[in-house]
Automatic annotation (TrEMBL):
<protein>
    <submittedName>
        <fullName>Uncharacterized protein</fullName>
    </submittedName>
</protein>
Length: 234
């Protein structure tokens, strides 16, 4: 239930100071008494959705992003089916959108709360925008290797969030990776990802790719900050 001050603001038609995404969540939970009582959850959700809105300032920008993701993913499914001579299944747009949204939520949550520090009960590392760019670039090498001159790998296990720190000498350490799931149960796909041949193998392979580049070659490929002399280790 809104407090009196909030009610008066809305009745006067004045704009809310809250973000558009949090307002959507608040409206959806207007009759949920458990949600209304949980102020800690509301505070966390508002912080996460405010961070998300820095990347997607309008609903249309988020819709455009999700549309592009679905179109590209659909093309990959069609190409894989054509290459291996089988009829593709009907594309699950709802599932893809739900999964992508969930990953964006968790990524925003990590930006605000440092999930590695929370789960390991350690002090959060200082916010470093350069380090954040390295983490985003690292995942992009997994997701779009062709963009950086690497061969595409089918059935490549891609983690959702990497946690990287840079030590003295510009060498990087991959502290951990996170794979986020919206399901309440572990499925066969996640089991395969947790096997030694899953995400861990993909990480080793990608680190070898990056560490093999000379500094000149890394810069040429758009991977400044990676390569020989700036190797990354697990």
């Amino acid at each position: 239930m809104l407090d009196v001050a909030e009610e008066n603001i809305e009745r006067r038609g004045e704009p809310s100071t809250r973000g558009i995404f949090y307002e959507t969540i608040r409206g959806a939970n207007a009759s949920d008494k458990e949600w209304q009582r949980n102020k800690d959850l509301q505070t966390r959700q508002e912080a996460i959705l405010t961070k998300l809105q820095e990347r997607f300032p309008t609903k249309d920008s988020l819709i455009a992003y999700l549309t592009e993701i679905c179109v590209e993913d659909y093309k990959k499914h069609q190409e894989y089916a054509r290459k291996h001579h089988f009829r593709p299944r009907e594309y699950n747009v709802r599932g893809k959108v739900a999964g992508e949204l969930f990953e964006r939520f968790v990524s925003a949550e990590n930006d605000v709360y440092d999930l590695y520090a929370e789960t390991k009960h350690t002090d959060p590392l200082p916010t470093d925008p350069i380090q954040k760019l390295k983490e985003e670039k690292f995942i992009d090498v997994f997701t779009n290797p062709e963009k950086y001159g690497f061969q595409h790998m089918e059935y490549f296990n891609i983690p959702d969030i990497p946690f990287i720190v840079t030590n003295e000498g510009d060498h990087m350490v991959l502290r951990a990776v996170a794979e986020v799931k919206s399901s309440d149960h572990l499925d066969e796909r996640l089991y395969r990802q947790l096997l030694p041949t899953g995400i861990r193998q993909a990480l080793v392979f990608t680190l070898e790719r990056l560490n093999s580049l000379t500094q000149k070659e890394a810069i040429r490929r758009g991977l400044s900050g990676f390569g020989q002399g700036k190797e990354m280790y697990m």
